Amino acid sequence: MFTVTHMMSKKARPTKSSRLRKQQQSSWAVLTPEELVQPGAALIALLLEKAHTRRIGMQELAKDLGITYGYFTWIRRRKEAVLKIGDEVIERIAEFLELPKVAVMLLAGQLKLADFDQKPENLKTNLENALRFIQGDPKIGPYVPATIFAADSALQLLVVSLYEMATDRVLIASKKTPEEIAALHKEFFAGSNE
């Protein structure tokens, strides 16, 4: 009896190599302080978190996104590289993260709030009002942290946009049609290829 119990407890313990693999796997999933201040850091952080949750490495993450490992590390390490991600890759990232394409574009810094044609001072007020409305929602409100009001306006807009999509409500009306936003997007990429 003692031998069986002793043998079972040895099997249940993680080996040194499995602990090392786990540590190495989680170490790449952390952004360095330099990476955190680069454009698109929120997008890279979400990709790394999702890959870590799925227990896949960077090579497999790149493969799932339909890009090479080298391209992924270039996006991650080079300042401004996220701004140059093409439309097809943005779509694959959106699919991987299970987010709307526009949310990925906002996270990548490819769309700015000015692209939605609101004066910055009006947008700030509208965002605050929309976030207060969301905070008052009986189902979602308890999950909204008070720190959302101090967050970056792109992140605030993402939260409001996701709430609007989830509830079929419009909290901030855009002056641009989807066609106009698509034209701006095409114009952005045409300018980045020059």
SSE arrangement:
Layout: H1 2-12, H2 16-27, H3 33-36, H4 41-54, H5 58-64, H6 69-77, H7 87-97, H8 101-108, H9 120-135, H10 153-167, H11 178-192
What brief labels describe this structure?
194 residues; mainly alpha; 434 Repressor (Amino-terminal Domain); disordered N terminus
How would you characterize this protein structure?
Helix content is 63%, strand content 0%. The protein is globular. The protein has 11 helices and no strands. It has 2 domains: 16-108, 434 Repressor (Amino-terminal Domain); 118-173, no CATH class.
Task: Offer a concise description of the structure.
The chain is built from eleven helices and no strands. The protein is an all-alpha fold and 194 residues long.
Question: Which structural class should the secondary elements be placed in?
Answer: mainly alpha
Share of β-strand residues: under 5%
Supply Rg: 21 Å
Number of strands: 0
| Tally of discrete structural domains | 2
Report the mean per-residue pLDDT as an integer.
77
Q: How much helix, percentage-wise, in residues?
A: 55-70%
CATH architecture identity of the largest domain: Orthogonal Bundle
Spell out the helices and strands N to C: HHHHHHHHHHH
The geometry reads as: globular
N-end to C-end Cα span: 74 Å
CATH topology of the largest domain: 434 Repressor (Amino-terminal Domain)
Number of helices: 11
The first-level CATH class of the largest domain is given as: Mainly Alpha
Quick one: biggest sheet? none
The stretches of 5 or more residues where confidence is low (pLDDT under 50) are 1-11, 20-27
